[in-house]
Amino acid sequence: MNPVYTALGTTIFETMSARARATGAINLGQGFPDGRGPEDVLAEGARALLEGSNQYPPMAGTPTLRQAVADHYRVHQGLDLSPDEVIVTSGATEALAAAIFALVSPGDEVVMFQPLYDAYLPLVQRAGGVAKLVRLEPPEWRITASALAAAASDRTRLVILNSPLNPCGTLATPAELALLADFCISHNAIAICDEVWEHVVFDGLAHRSLMTLPGMRDRTVKIGSAGKIFSLTGWKVGWMCAAPAIASVLAKAHQFLTFTTPPNLQAAAAFGLGKDAAYFADMRAGYQGSRDRLAAGLGALGYAVLPSSATYFLNIDLTASGIAMGDVAFAAWLIEEAGVATIPVSAFYAEDPVTTVVRLCFAKQDATLDAALARMEKRP
Ligand code: PMP
Ligand code: GLN
User: Fold this and answer.
1) Keywords on this record (predicted)?
2) Residues having CB within 6 Å of any atom of ligand 1
3) Do both 235 and 269 map to the same domain?
4) Which of 40, 236, 358, 376 could crosslink 91 through cysteines, CB 3.0-4.6 Å?
């Protein structure tokens, strides 16, 4: 058996959701909205299914969705991609696996930032890569030039960037993007950019892809997810975008992971990507309102809420909230004693974790957020 997997625990998202189901807790842990999602996108998926779009589509994705992704990024992010540079995957999770397996050879060093999304490290290790972890510190969670330089060597091959950043709710700054671009170019490294949260950005801020920086167009793999863009996390339709020389290798890895992705859901995602700017603005405004509702409610209960300008998540700082417990103990107490599930942020560290921060998902109906807040009046 492979030691990477025998040593691995179950992902924190599944663990906390299973505990929430077992206890009847309100689940503000795993990130998924409790609304229905856009009706017209659902209808398009149903139409495609009923009209018979149910056999294997082309391995790299339907031409319609590949074109829709390229068009979408032209309109929303100023990128000039051809449909041949888009490969459709079964969620961003599969895109991450395909990209990491395609690009990492045994002994290659991969620079990643902690807190890190929990799929990255096991995939890099399974590919034989060597993780070079750069630790980010609350409350700003910023990448510094010195920390990045300390992670470099002549075996640096890849950088994995998640922006907007789950679990922190931050967006890479122009200075951080410039730093990363310089780093990749000077070390001849490829960047895998996990941008699944690209549309869930607040306060008038805008996401910028590392791919748009000078010199990065042909050394970036940009990953997206329809699940996040349309608030339909169970759909597992994602994609990776890269210059042809990289895309052809990514496709080789993809063909033996899932080969393809349900064509009816690809049709629905393609339809949705063509929605007008008002749809995306409304979605952002809705989530921003939910963020503000939960932040205000937590503040009134004496919790210290860290700033969140993107993603479905906000964090509380336990120490500043006057709670002496660590994040794992507090999350366990909260689910068992108050009936609210959260995610302890130490789960996003491979070593030397920050243990005083807990993540809550605000992508919920007002009534759900209010019910969770009422339960959280009980404090340890
Ligand atoms: N990357 C990040 C940073 C995520 O937060 C998520 C899911 N929330 C994923 C990847 C996986 O996306 P998908 O559900 O499309 O596989
Ligand atoms: N990305 C989601 C989160 O951060 C969970 C995804 C999953 O459960 N694999 O909560």
Assistant:
1) Aminotransferase, Pyridoxal phosphate, Transferase
2) 31, 91-93, 117, 162, 166, 194, 196, 225, 227, 233, 236, 238
3) yes
4) 236
